[in-house]
Amino acid sequence: MDLYQTRIPAPQDWQQLQRITADFYKSKFPDCTVDEYGTHGQAQDGVDVYIYDETTAVGVQCKCVETFTADDLAKEFDKTKSFKNPLKHYIIVVTVKRDTGLVNKAVELTLSSGLGVRIEVKFWQPLAEELAGYESLAKKYLNFAVRFPVHVEANGASALIVLETKDSRFEFVATKMASFKGRYEKQGNLILVTSLQGEKKSTLPLAWKRALDRLP
Asked: Of 9, 14, 85, 169, which alpha carbon lies 20 to 30 A from 44's?
């Protein structure tokens, strides 16, 4: 399983989600103008980020929420009918888990609205996986940068991590474990990292929680 497919925590506030979304689409559409549309308190007609050039017109709405329903999607799209600029593609970025009901609603609205606007739901996890493919964005927002293919195979509390470069292959096993008497007696959580190639073992404090949360 690619590292991009491991669980990456979503932003905790809409401002951060909007900044990430704007930077992501600036990288995805490098030849387009990408603007964070309006400011807080202004009428934005369902659009937080606007992407455009001579042939492209994409509106993006960012929803940092715990729940988001098909009715919510329809209401957000309905707001765009007052949007003053051209719109060919409308994307809702949401922090909820993948939901077939939302995808089905997006398809339904695309086919039935009669406005010629393609509607897409972009869930946080696949967006984060794509974000990890841009080294500068991964380093800025995800606290890591992927330079070489990394694969993770998880089994319970352990994970096999394989790093492959052009000339080398490195394998490690990371395992969560209880504390023990000795040097790390006062540490509540530990992670054991084992190099399968060199058979070297080390025990480290479980301090980098955000990184470990990305392990399945």
From this structure: 9
- Which structure tokens are listed for 179? 């504390």
- Angle in degrees, CA 207, 210, 213, rounded to 5: 105
Total residues belonging to the chain: 216
What are the structure tokens assigned to 7, written together? 């669980």
Tokens 């707001």 found at: 79
Write down the pLDDT at residue 12: 85
Q: Are 65 and 98 in contact (CB under 8 A)?
A: no
Residue 123: per-residue pLDDT? 96
At 167 the pLDDT is: 65
pLDDT of 205:
42
Contact of 59 with 32, CB cutoff 8 Å:
no
Query: What contacts 166, CB < 8 A, 6 or more positions away?
Result: 148
Collapse the DSSP code of 156 into the 3-class scheme (helix H, G, I; strand E, B; otherwise coil) and give the result. coil
Task: Name the residue ranges covered by the structural domains of the chain.
Answer: 3-141, 150-213
Cα 121 from Cα 77, distance rounded (Å): 11
Q: Is 3-141 CATH 3.40.1350.10?
A: yes
